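During the reporting period the student researcher (J.K.) took over the structure-prediction task from the postdoctoral fellow and processed the backlog of single-chain submissions. One of the processed entries is reproduced below for the supervisory committee.
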Amino acid sequence: MLRHTVATLAYRGGKAVRGAPEGFSDFRAGKTSRSAGEILAHVGDLLDWALVMARKKHEWHDSEPLAWDKEVQRFFAALEALDEYLASGNPLRSEPEKLFQGPIADALTHIGQIAMLRRLAGAPVRGENYLRAKIVMGRVGPRQAAPVKEFE
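J.K. obtained the following C-alpha cells:
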C-alpha cells in the first residue's frame, strides 16, 4: 500500500508541478503564507524524512528552497529513493502506518496546496477522475501516464 501511495503522490505531484508558469516558485496566497517553492522544498524534506524513518530513525532537516526546476527534480529523486527502499525488501525501521500518517500524508496535503496555488496564480491544473488514472506502483519519476479522464 505504501508503494502505491508513493506512486499516487508522484502522479498527482507531477501534475501539480509540471508546466508551472515563470515566477510561480515565489507565488504566495498571502503575505504570511509559504511560497509555492517553499512548499515544494518542504515536500522534499518530508520525503527525505520518510526515507530516513524507513531506514533507521526519526531525523528532520529543513532545506532552503532551490530554483523551481531543481526542486521538481529533487521531488522526483526523493520519491524514487523512497520507492526503491520500500521495494528492496529491507526491513522498515518505522511502522508503515506512521510513515503514511506523518510524512506521506503531509506531502499529499502540500501537493494539494501547490495545485490550489496554481489556480490562484492563473495557471490551474486540470481536474481529473483520479480513480481512472493509470497510477502504477514503481512509476514514481517525472514520466507519468497521460490523464484518462480530465475535466475543467
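The committee noted the following: The mean pLDDT is 96.
J.K. will present the remaining backlog at the next meeting.
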